[in-house]
């Protein structure tokens, strides 16, 4: 037998060990499976939608927010709007914008700055708004006291004649001369209606009432308003009302020891001794409605005319000098206006020319009221350009 060398034996032993190891792997225990992947992290909640940009709203004022009357009332309502809607809206205003071509420029400028809802707050803005509206279809225009509309122009107004009538009740009881005075702004139906309603209210408690009117042919001109008030006092009027925008009439009455009313806003502070009450407008309810319409996509053209019933008109801060029974009568009328049981313009009503304008028990509709161009019996003189 051939003897194997030591190197050969070692070589054979090595191969045997490798073979045994191979057999163990091939026939013995299986390989461990790869570990399963870790479960995925739960998907995070969807990112919140970007916050909508605020609706930009612009107010264009014919006067100053410090006038204590018309523009002051509008600006108070603008502030109420901001409080109501918070960061859903942003508002700005431009004051002392004359009626006419300059207003047209301002409306275009506000639209250019991103305003999508624009309130033009005086009658004389009607034609400027109607001129720019067709060029700015994505802007909604709201025009105060106007009567013309377009696809993106709506009108709104307050029944200021209701406040005038309630003031008249007080005036009729407080006058000693039986002569009342009104400082009129511009002889349009709105203002003529207020003069007449003031007179009707006064005549409801004092049939002897006569009303004198001095026109200043401007909405806001304190020196002219004061001059007109002085003229009325010199003519025998001892209780004054105004349909102008400043507090000048009340201040004049205070300085001359006569009575007067605040108009559009509570003007007590401007003439505490002269002040009998203030016939005020609250524009906030309408501004909230209009803004809600724009935000919700329900805005549409048309016309809105709100009064005591909707919380837009009131008479406030009635003086302690006014007798209790007169205060009660005012409250009764106010309640009737609110629930619809009382009508100011209910016949028989006769014009200053002696002709009947409403038959007995006939109630004027809004078409009649919006077209008044005559004085009622008891108002002296003639309407400029009218009857």
UniProtKB/TrEMBL annotation:
InterPro entries: ABC-Purine-Binding, PnrA-like, TAT_signal
Name by which UniProt lists this protein: BMP family ABC transporter substrate-binding protein
PANTHER family xrefs: ABC TRANSPORTER SUBSTRATE-BINDING PROTEIN
Short name of any one Pfam family annotated for the protein: Bmp
Source species: Piscinibacter gummiphilus
One GO CC term, this protein: plasma membrane
